[in-house]
Write a structure and sequence with these properties.
elongated, mainly alpha
Length: 81
């Protein structure tokens, strides 16, 4: 994933295209997005992030938290049938 394409855009694109409870439960970021975030986290530990990269990581973490809450809610919806 090029640095010019922030990892969090995948989550935004996923939401923007419309979802179902099933697709929310099954959603996983691409391997490229996962690697990008892992790289940012590793570099953050060394205080080596630019302000833009720090913002990218922060946005991803916030959206990931929202997505986890949505997954929990989608599981509740699916369990009710």
């Amino acid at each position: 994933m090029p640095a010019a394409h922030p990892a969090y855009l995948e989550i935004i694109d996923f939401i923007a295209t419309g979802t179902t409870p099933e697709s929310v439960v099954n959603y996983r970021p691409s391997p490229e997005a996962q690697q990008r975030v892992a790289d940012l986290i590793a570099r953050e530990k060394d205080d080596a992030l630019t302000p833009e990269e720090k913002a990218e990581l922060d946005y991803f973490v916030q959206l990931e938290h929202i997505l986890r809450m949505a997954k929990a809610r989608a599981l509740q919806i699916l369990s009710r049938g």
